[in-house]
Amino acid sequence: MLRFLIYPVEFLIYPVSGIMKMWHILLHSVLGLSDSTAWMLSIFGLIIVVRLTILPPAWMQYRAGRIYVNLRPKLSQLEEEFQDRTDAEADDELQKARRKLFKDHDYRVSAGCVPTLIQLPMFMGLYQVLLRMARPTEGLHATTHAPIGFLTSNDVATFLEGRVGGVPMPAYVAMTDEQFTFLNTNHDAVFRFALPFFISAAIFMSVNMVYSMYRNLLTMDYKSSFAVGLYKATIVMAFTVPVFPISFGLTGPAPVAISLYWFANSLWTMTQYITISKLLDKHFPLTPEYEDFRELSKQERRDRVRKKRAYKWGLRRRRLLMVLLPHRIPQLRAANRKAIEDWEYERYAARTKKQEIKDKRREAVKIKRERERMEREANKPPPPGRHRMRRETRAQWEAVPRSPNGPRHLKRS
């Protein structure tokens, strides 16, 4: 499993490092910028090229998600039409209806997952190239460094010698005094330079997550307990994830080059998400049918939550009364027992009904497949050769009359 995750990253290091090298050649050899400035701008150029490369798959993913959201009322209607059917053709007809609905609205299921499989390795390759250049495995004291994709040992060495605002690119806040001395800098200089970038990255991430939560609330599937639970988990992450750039940047090995990457990448992510969201609202707006369906689903969920809350508070209230009114304990205990039985029976009845329909449908499918298998066996032509001769010999054997003196014999011509 680890190799499966590492090999795509190793493979993508080559194109990512090639893009960064081309930017450095353009800025340093063609435009005549210094090595330090060229390497700094190469980081931003690398982010621009990689993010523009994966922008079309990202748009496809957001577009597919919006189309699917608008199809939820019709998909829910299909589920209601087929939920009580127990015949063998119910599942096949439901899938055919879903496929026809997707085809009519130009929705492809692969458009929702394939772009993620493309974007994630690209992000990992981009981050790994910058991390390996800023923190080589041989250490900062080494005179030669291992190549990183298309970047040679000399490229890595010039990158490590580069400075941004007078601060070395491989320097980070949590370095030891010996490392600061080796890089000819100090803790305060690195701290003053890197902290604004880490704070800016955290702010961009916070804005992106808050806006994303607002957008997810507009497209929330209130009929799915998993979707609601995931949204609640996202609320918790909105307060914890933005803290990571600051905490890791100030206490972990986060070089200045990585702070520049986090700043630029977070800014791009925020801008891209807001822009794509506006384009979606313009070209693929939420339909009135979906908005009515969303409000109805929200109200149904509120009713379920209110009913469950009333059930739990009723149990708690009667338990409290048992303490305050001991003489009514038998009646209150009986009331609690009846409330629990009614609640459990209602849940059990709903689950049992669904399970019975699934079992009947599964049994109908099994009978249908067995019938089709028997029909295929009946319509199957007799096999040639030895098996046919055996069948013909059997027919001849049955046609011969029984001999009174012994077993039947085949007539020979």
Automatic annotation (TrEMBL):
Main location: membrane
InterPro entries attached to this UniProt entry: YidC/ALB3/OXA1/COX18, YidC/Oxa/ALB_C
Coiled-coil stretches: none
Subcellular location: Membrane
Record region (Disordered): 357-413
GO molecular function: membrane insertase activity
Boundaries of every Membrane insertase YidC/Oxa/ALB C-terminal domain copy: 39-277
Annotated membrane topology: Multi-pass membrane protein
Transmembrane domains' residue ranges: 12-31, 37-59, 109-130, 193-214, 226-248
UniProt keyword annotations, A-Z: Membrane, Transmembrane, Transmembrane helix
Compositional bias ranges of the Basic and acidic residues kind: 357-379
Any single biological process term in GO: protein insertion into membrane
GO terms for cellular component: membrane
NCBIfam families per UniProt: PRK00247.1 (NF001300), yidC_oxa1_cterm (TIGR03592)
Similarity comment: Belongs to the OXA1/ALB3/YidC family. Type 1 subfamily.
Primary role: Required for the insertion and/or proper folding and/or complex formation of integral membrane proteins into the membrane. Involved in integration of membrane proteins that insert both dependently and independently of the Sec translocase complex, as well as at least some lipoproteins. Aids folding of multispanning membrane proteins.
Subunit structure: Interacts with the Sec translocase complex via SecD. Specifically interacts with transmembrane segments of nascent integral membrane proteins during membrane integration.
PANTHER family referenced in this protein's UniProt entry, alphabetically: CYTOCHROME C OXIDASE ASSEMBLY PROTEIN COX18, MITOCHONDRIAL, OXA1
Protein name in the entry: Membrane protein insertase YidC
Source organism (scientific name): Corynebacterium durum F0235
Phylogenetic lineage: Bacteria, Bacillati, Actinomycetota, Actinomycetes, Mycobacteriales
